[in-house]
Structures
1.
Amino acid sequence: MSGTEYDITVVLPGDVESLRPRLISALERVGYRIYGEEPLLAKRRSNGWEVISMSVLDYAVDLTVQLKATSEGATLATFDYLIHDPIAPAGWRQIIDCEVKAIAALASQSTWSTTCPVCNTESASGSRFCRRCGAPLAPPEPAELELLRVTAESRGAVNDVTISAFLVIITGLILFALMVGGYTPMKLMTFLFVVNALGWIPLFLGIRRLRRALKTAPETDSRAQDITPSRIPALPPKPLAISVTENTTELLEQTEEPAPARLQPSSRDTA
């Protein structure tokens, strides 16, 4: 099958057997479907926009990953890409390099954490959610994933705008020359008008991609707002220690009996 091939080699930590399942998990996280393990065979389907898109991530891709041990704690991984498009625009190699770095970063990080990133509560090993606030214990996404997204969107925007400008300018000049020269065949004019109108579609797609590339802050899920530190209910206040002798003096003063009155000597003569 015709297409564009890229070969990229990286060195990853760990032996072949321990690295293989981590690579499978990383490939699945970036959208690949695994159908072979020795060597790793993965496939990513097109998203339906490859006809009018110039981004490599929109095309169908066949990926083969060869693993070879280089030392006791290092493995050489060779990524062999086959992209189902015979014409590779400029910048596709840069996007593929970023994707390989993102896959390597995902395969190198730990799977789950035991400390909650929201309330810092220690949970049992293997638990996926915090036992106190319910927050997920999945590790944060590496920066290479964000770099891949920004690079793919920006390069795709540049390619889309370039194609749009070429179609609009060329067809516009031809139409202008035909009208000035007085030669206006209906079929040719209709064809040029249609091509000129279609040429604006990649421009709008490129602007949309550029806006997504500049939007670095991810949208916050409304469900995640319930597990933020401000939403975690505060613990009840610690009860104050009550002293045994507290207010004892006041009670004694209230219950103390008055002193007996002194007897006055009688004024009657006792003689």
2.
Amino acid sequence: METYLVGGAVRDELLGLPVLDKDWVVVGSSEEAMLKQGYQRVGKDFPVFLHPKSKEEYALARTERKTAAGHQGFECDASDSVTLEEDLMRRDLTINAIAKSANGDLIDPQKGALDIKLKILRHVSPAFSEDPLRILRIARFFARFEDFAIAPETIALLRQMINEDQLAELAVERIWVEVTKALETHHPARFFQLLTDLGAHDKLWPAIPNSGIDRLAGLTSKITDPELRFAGLCSQSGFGLRDHLTRMKVPNRYAELALAANKYMDHLLIDNPRPELVLKLLTNLDALRRPKRFQDLLRLAQSIKNLTALRPLFDWNRHFQVVQGIGSDQVDPNLKGKDFGAALSELRLKALKAQQV
């Protein structure tokens, strides 16, 4: 039994980046032998185990054969005869197909270390095309490593996979996992722009215009919160956004903020809105009962405003505090229903007008 450090840990070490997670491949062993040594099986579809002490993942070296559509349609051979080189051959990119032995030697049959020096993302073999999830994974690496380019032959293969509609084989939940990971990278707009350039725009996010990707690119250095980044991406999407987010099963906390940004951002960016518009917007946004969402939208609006820096953002917080200061206890208690609501709104509007004098 031999163990090797593999994948992202070796790649990031060669790049001089912090190694956060370590994955290991085990050669010349079996599930029975791993269990006898105290390893705990955690892989449902693949032979992956947790180390009894470090809890790091150890996977038996394996080969895979495509048997069905999708990124899970594979038959796995994890017998003790599978070699390290065979295991590395099944991986997606050359930079992820490097192993490191216990004495520090690199096993790099795909020349991934050279591609790291050249800053190239290159697929290992034609088997790359058997897993449509790899389309999104390479786009995510493209977003994470902003100074890397994609090899021309890999670009051609990606286009072929997209033209064959392989993305349709993926569950929308799995697509969203890759989107959220991309939103956490240093340059998330590169993820969306690459897939758009490759022809996947209409298959993945037809409701999001190119201007949304451009806006996201400008916001990236100012906003790190993935929910706000997604809201910025969606803030110019028009009327089809709700159906798109529902179809993609986007989590509510992302969807609600994105829909609010899409509907109200242009109003928040107005330089000097009339008191009537201020009150209407605060009411429509339910700002008094949902102050956190309102503040999130203001953070996004401020960042968008900073992209042009022509004028400062309207002081929404000051006007919000004015409205907040007029409570229901200031309304005639004899009024009921709509009359009570109308009287409260009138008091708040009067206070806003006095604020702008």
